[in-house]
Design goal:
With 319 residues, the protein is α/β, with parallel strands linked by helices. The chain has helices spanning 15-22, 59-62, 96-114, 117-125, 149-160, 186-191, 212-215, 240-249, 289-304, and strands spanning 7-11, 31-33, 49-53, 68-71, 90-91, 141-145, 164-168, 179-181, 195-198, 228-231, 254-257, 277-279. The two termini are 36 Å apart.
Amino acid sequence: MPASSPVLVDIKFNPEGVARVLKTAFADRGSINLADPANRSRDLREVEYALLWKPDADLFKRAPNLKVIFSGGAGVDHIIGMAGLPEIPIVRFVDRSLTTRMSEWVVMQCLMHLRGQYTHDSHQRQREWAKLIAPEAAEVTVGVMGLGILGQDAVAKLKVMGFNVIGWSRTRKQIEGIETFDALELDNFLARTDILVGLLPLTPETAGFYDAGLFAKLRRNGALGQPVFINAGRGKSQVEADIVSAIRDGTLGGASLDVFETEPLASDNPLWDLQNVFLTPHDAAVSEENALFRHVETQIARFERGEPLQFMVDRAAGY
């Protein structure tokens, strides 16, 4: 039986963690970590499987015989559109831990806006005893945009917290107990939404999607007084100049952002100083290396047994 082809790894995050976990991962076939200087000029023509996150531009030239590409995260916009991308399956990373972490972040942000946490923090720093009377979660409608695995889990957990939850996706999803909307019903969805949660993938249709025109359509007479925008999907889906303007002129009452048009966020970006805005450095749901490598091992085993791959990307849709 021929030796198994090693897994090519080109991941541009947490290089120390990746290198450490790779020592024991893929025990039956080994791996080639492109972050290791020893592999910079290595011949990659025999490689059949590649695990990628923001890979080198010449990767597909160097590895022309790939059979499957695995994304190092839930998104695939860092691969789709690359020059020389072969017509082979692309598999997203789906993991219970990643999904759970994302929902934790979404629920936390919704609760912080519900309970006026920014104002409480300000009072604490000023040593000021000032009670706030917040609405109950049931009085607030959270509209979740993007109803894939991450979105559906967030919807379920927001419901547990008592929020009124509605969902939007380009094509309608059926989710028990949740009112859902599709592309043609966007304005109706926005008009009902007090807290907008963005979990959309980045596609040509969603680039610059969250803009001044969209924010102006959110509900203005809800229990929070002003709508709130929360985004943990993709930074290039939001127009940051419009977020800044909307916060300053009161179109938005607050925001929580984990993703940005350019990362890391520049120290002079006006987002840092805005009232009632929470910023996190794209760490809402970070891929955990052990789980990522186990996921790839499982999918390779399925592929080599002739079973269908799971979590395959629809290239036409871009996710």
